[in-house]
Amino acid sequence: MGKNTYTALLIMTLTIYAIRVIPFVIFRREIKNKWVRSFLYYVPYVTLAVMTFPAILNATSSVWSGTLALAVGITVALIRGDLFTVAISACIAVFLLELFLVV
Amino acid sequence: MLKNTENESKTGRPRSACFLRGLRDGVPIAMGYLAVAFTLGITAANIDMTAVQSFLMSLGMVASAGEYAAIILIGSAAGVTEMIATTLIINLRYFLMSCSLSQKLSPDEPMWKRCLLAYCVTDELFGISSAVPGYLEPVYTYGAAVVSVAGWCLGTVLGVVAGDILPVRLASAMNVALYGMFLAIIIPPAKKSSFMAGLVVISMAASYVFTVIPVISDISEGFRIIILTVIIAGAAAFIRPAEEA
User: Which is the most buried residue in A69, A75, A82, B62, by most CB within 10 A?
Assistant: First the structure.
C-alpha cells in the first residue's frame, strides 16, 4: 500500500490514457477509404447494442426488473429518443417493480 | 434533444450552448456512474485503498471494468508488466471508440482539443458524442464529462467512506440508467432504417449467443465487445457502405 499504490495508479492511468489518445494522434485527418469510414460509422451502434444485451438483464436485483427496464427503455426510445427521459423511465420502472419483487 | 448540425462546430451556434447541452446530457450519465462507482468504492475499501487513492483512480482512469481490474491488481501487489498488460487488454475497446470518434471531428480541430477529448472516451460519453449529427463539437463532450466524471468520483469516494449509505433498491434502479441511455442512442436510428434495426438486433443476438455457448462464454466482456464489433460492423460496412459516413 501507500507509495506503491500511487505508483500503480499512475502507471495504469497513463496506460489507459495512451489507449484513448493514440487513435486521435494517428487519425488527425479524415480517412478517405469508404469501407473504413463505414466501419467506424457502424462501430458505436454495434458496440452499444452488444454492451446493452444481455447485460441489462443482470444489472438489477432481479432478471424480471432487468427485462422490464429493457422493454420500457426500447418503448420510450421509440416514442421519444431523449437520453434523460429514456434513462429515467427505465430507472423508475425498475424501482417500482422491485417494490413488489424484492422483499 | 440533439438538434445541432455541422454548422455549429465552426460557425453558427455558440460553443457555450454546446457546453450547456453537454452538462444537461451528462446528468443521466452521472446518475448511473454514481451507482456503479459506489460499488467500485466498496471494492476499493476492501483492499484498504483510501478515499484519496480511490478518488485519484476514478479521476485518472474513468473506467468501470478497468478500475475493478486495477483494484484487484493493486490488492494482489501485481508487477508493472502485469499492470500494463491487463490495463491494455481490458480497455482495448476504447481504442476502437477513439478511432471512431476521431472521424467525428472537423479536420480543423486543434490537437489539444483532441487530446482532451481522448480523456472523455468512456462507453457512455462515446455513445452520446457519436449520436450528435454531423461534426462533433468537442465542448459538448467536455460539458458531459464535467458532470459525469464528478458523479463518478463522488460515487467512488462515497463507496469507500460509507459503503452502506445507498439503499440496495435505489442502486439497483440507478444501474439501468446507463443501459437506458444506450437504448436512447441505438433505437431511434433503428426506427428510421430497417438496416440499422437489423444491425442492432443481430448485435444483441450475437452478444447473447456469446454469453451462453460453452468455451466462447469464457471470453471476457471486453474482448466479446471488441470481437463482435469488428466482425459485425466490418460486415455491415461491406454489405452497405454508409452514406452518412
Answer: A69
